[in-house]
């Protein structure tokens, strides 16, 4: 599993709120075995919604092929780093430490901490956060939780990223229900994407989701994104046309027919 932790920006909103996609560097956790320049912080957006689909075994593809398929503008973070850990335990400790530090900083500075989650193996990687000392130290009441991608299925469906996060993480911490932004699962994928975009716009206008002073575009405080073995993030598979779009809305929906353009 690969984790990508970024504060990042997303794309266009109508006035008075405008958004754009951009990645920024983040201060990364301590005690890695080694680290190198990491140019793959890849695309954090758009948030993707997928319609119901059957899981298909992924074809393995070297990550370097994925990297070279990315548009050059996706490879321009200021100070990206790759941290390599000797064990999962060390990675999870470092991830918890990093998240708790950021949470403290943002909660104290502005009274809110906006966190974007993916589905997949990432969620189990958050387990240290629900254990002592982090569980007691973190100001969960100030967290606002979003999803980078979601399957358009009922919230109790086994494919639901919300269900995964709820069962393994959210049900074990005290984040107010109204600050957990699951998709509307009772409408089409297109309508759910539009609804989610509108809710994010409202949160931007309320100041819960911040705007970058330099670009005027919104940004989330922390994005925790799992990466599949073929390099896919957020249902965006290598070769998918969305990866090459110059201008995209804040959210996109994809169907199982066009989910994997590379296959
Ligand atoms: O399709 C998806 O896969 C990625 C990666 O999952 P992982 O289990 O290989 O870590 C996940 O982040 C994303 O939310 C999901 O829709």
UniProtKB/TrEMBL annotation:
Protein EC? 3.1.1.31
Report the CDD domains cross-referenced here: 6PGL (cd01400)
Catalytic activity of the protein = 6-phospho-D-glucono-1,5-lactone + H2O = 6-phospho-D-gluconate + H(+)
Q: Which Pfam families match?
A: Glucosamine_iso (PF01182)
Q: Which superkingdom does the taxonomy of this entry point to?
A: Eukaryota
- UniProt pathway: Carbohydrate degradation; pentose phosphate pathway
Q: In this protein, which residues make up the domain named Glucosamine/galactosamine-6-phosphate isomerase? A: 87-249
Which family does the similarity line name?
Belongs to the glucosamine/galactosamine-6-phosphate isomerase family. 6-phosphogluconolactonase subfamily.
Q: Which PANTHER family match?
A: 6-PHOSPHOGLUCONOLACTONASE (PTHR11054), 6-PHOSPHOGLUCONOLACTONASE 3, CHLOROPLASTIC (PTHR11054:SF22)
Name of the protein in its database record: Probable 6-phosphogluconolactonase
Q: Which organism is it from?
A: Platanthera guangdongensis
